[in-house]
Design goal:
Elements (H helix, E strand, L loop, with lengths): L7 H16 L1 H20 L7 E11 L3 H8 L12 E6 L11 E8 L2 E13 L3 E10 L6 E14 L5 E12 L3 H6 L2 E2 L2 E2 H25 L1
Helix pairs in contact: 1-5
C-alpha cells in the first residue's frame, strides 16, 4: 500500500477533495462543460496560440548518493513504499531493469478511488534522472482510455557534501490554451488538481528521504 505516514492529515484532505470531484457528477459535468467546448473551439478555429502545460514541482536534499536515489525511484514496482497514492506497478514484459521504452501498469488509490494507468519510460539515466509518460487510464487492471495524460520526472543533482538534490515534476499537456483555465476550476473543498498533486509530490519526497536516509544509516 502507499505510504502517507509523513503527512496523513493533509493527504486525507486531498483524498476527500478528489473523491468529491470524481464522485459528484455535477462537478465533473461542469468541468467537461467548460473544457470540451473550449477545446473544440480551439480546434475548429485552428487556434494558433501556443499549447499550454500545467506543471507542479518540488525538491528535497537527501543524504544519499545519486546512484542510490536513482535505484529507488526507478524501481516502479516498489514506488508504493513512498507514494501516498501509488500502490505498486506491474511490468508489462517482466523486466526489472528500467530502460527507455519500458512499459508498466501503475496501480493507484485515493480514498475510495482506485485506478490503473499504462505508462512508458522516456528517460532512464542512472544517477541523473528517471521519467515516464502516462498514456492510458481506466478502472483497476483495465487502462483502456488512451490519451496523453501526464508526465512524471525525477532529476538528480549531486551536492558538494555527497548528498543528492532531488526534483520531482508532474505535468499534463500540452493542451489548447483555452482548456487549462477550465481544468484549474475543477476543484472541491478548496483544492484543485494542481494543489492535490503538490501535496502528492511533497509527501513522496519526504518519504523518499526518510527511507533512503534510514538505509544509509543501516
Amino acid at each position: 500500500m502507499g505510504n502517507d505516514e509523513w503527512d496523513g492529515v493533509s493527504w486525507r484532505e486531498a483524498e476527500l477533495a478528489a473523491e468529491k470531484m470524481v464522485l459528484r457528477p455535477y462537478l465533473a459535468l461542469t468541468t467537461l462543460g467548460r473544457a470540451v467546448p473550449a477545446g473544440l473551439r480551439a480546434i475548429l478555429s485552428k487556434d494558433k496560440s501556443r499549447p499550454q502545460t500545467i506543471s507542479v514541482s518540488d525538491e528535497i536534499v537527501i543524504a544519499a548518493p545519486p546512484e542510490a536515489v536513482y535505484a529507488r525511484i526507478s524501481d516502479v514496482k516498489n514506488m508504493g513504499s513512498v507514494s501516498p497514492e501509488n500502490t505498486g506497478a506491474t511490468l508489462r514484459l517482466g523486466d526489472d531493469s528500467p530502460y527507455v521504452g519500458m512499459e508498466f501498469d501503475g496501480h493507484n488509490k485515493r480514498g475510495r478511488l482506485t485506478w490503473t494507468t499504462r505508462c512508458k519510460v522516456i528517460s532512464a539515466e542512472p544517477g541523473v534522472g528517471f521519467a515516464f509518460k502516462v498514456r492510458a487510464i481506466g478502472p483497476p487492471g483495465k487502462p483502456i482510455l488512451r490519451f496523453p495524460i501526464a508526465t512524471w520526472a525525477y532529476r538528480l543533482a549531486p551536492t558538494a557534501d555527497g548528498a543528492t538534490l532531488v526534483t520531482e515534476t508532474w505535468s499534463i499537456g500540452p493542451w489548447p490554451d483555452a482548456v487549462i483555465p477550465a481544468l484549474d476550476r475543477f476543484a472541491a473543498n478548496g483544492l484543485n488538481g494542481r494543489e492535490i498533486q503538490r501535496r502528492n509530490l511533497h509527501i513522496t519526497l519526504q518519504n523518499l528521504k526518510r527511507v533512503l536516509e534510514a538505509d544509509t544509516v543501516c
